[in-house]
Amino acid sequence: MTRKPVKVMIVEDHALFREGLKKVLDDIPGVELIGEAENGEAFLDLLKRITPDIVFMDLKMPVMDGMKATEEALRLYPRLRIIILSMFGEEDYLYAMIHKGICGYILKTARVFEIERAIELVSGGEQYFSSELNGILAKKLKQYSSQEIAVFTARESEILRLLCKGLSTPEISKKIHLSKRTIEGYRAKLLEKTGQPNVINLILYALKNKLVSVDEVESRNP
Questions:
Q1: How far is CA 21 from CA 46, 73, 77, 133, 173, in A?
Q2: Are residues 90 and 162 in the same domain?
Q3: Residues 148-186, buried b or exposed e (16+ Cβ, 10 A)?
Q4: Residues 110/113/118/119 CA torsion (nearest 10 deg)
Q5: Which of 18, 40, 100, 147 is the most exposed place for a label (fewest CB within 10 A)?
Q6: Could you give the dihedral angle defined by the CA atoms of residues 82, 96, 129 and 104, in that order, rounded to the nearest 10 degrees?
Q7: Residue 170's domain is classified under what CATH number?
């Protein structure tokens, strides 16, 4: 059976970067660019007519910035999967955007394979953020007090570490010889035990409570 293409939209005010990203997406098999907008307001208007699977969202734009556009879009379309595009140095937005419900956060300096990886994981219901951001995340977490730490079984701890390393559900399934459905069950249990809405927040929880080290997480997304 032929797999449906992943429908992608770009929201970016710089035409040169937008054109470059379009060329990258054109070369990725199974990806279809269905729309583009130069600011958040134009993006929200576009959403009324077409529905993407994934949105690549710039943060700093005129008229309406990416933070406001993301918040409004996820209010109207909670299942929308948004990947933030950021310049290095804009990481003050990172923690806030994760808690707004984004599915990914990558730097504009990302290489093609990172964009492919982000699309693969996010379209499959998982999350992706650039490995360069892990140290920044760890520092940011020091501003937040720790909560009561959940107790995990040995298998749950193993799967938590693998998720923190950036492995997808199929990759974990293959590595530890359990079915994908079983891994999905463990992942759901980890989210339930920690009270986290998604895997990105689960990774933040694990870092904050020293369940994994920054070095372990920095090895993710090779």
A1: 19, 22, 24, 21, 32
A2: no
A3: eebebeeebeebbbbbbbbbbbeebbeeeeeeeebbeeb
A4: 120
A5: 147
A6: -10
A7: 1.10.10.10
If asked whether residues 101 and 25 sit together in one domain, one would say yes
How far apart are the C-alpha atoms of 106 and 129, rounded to whole Å?
5
Is residue 116, in this structure, part of any structural domain at all?
A: yes
Q: How far from chain centre, in Å, is Cα 176?
A: 24
* H or E stretch covering 31: strand 31-37
Distance CA 6, CA 34 (A): 10
Task: Compute the radius of gyration of the chain from its Cα atoms.
Answer: 17
pTM, to two decimals? 0.71
Provide the residue range defining the domain that includes 85.
Answer: 6-129
Could you tell me if 98 and 162 lie in one domain?
A: no
d(C-alpha 26, C-alpha 31), whole Å: 7
Over residues 3-15, the pLDDT tens digits come to 789 999 999 999 9
Q: Is residue 101 part of a domain?
A: yes
Q: How many whole angstroms separate alpha carbon 203 and alpha carbon 166?
A: 10
The distance of Cα 191 from the centroid of its chain, to the nearest Å, equals 16
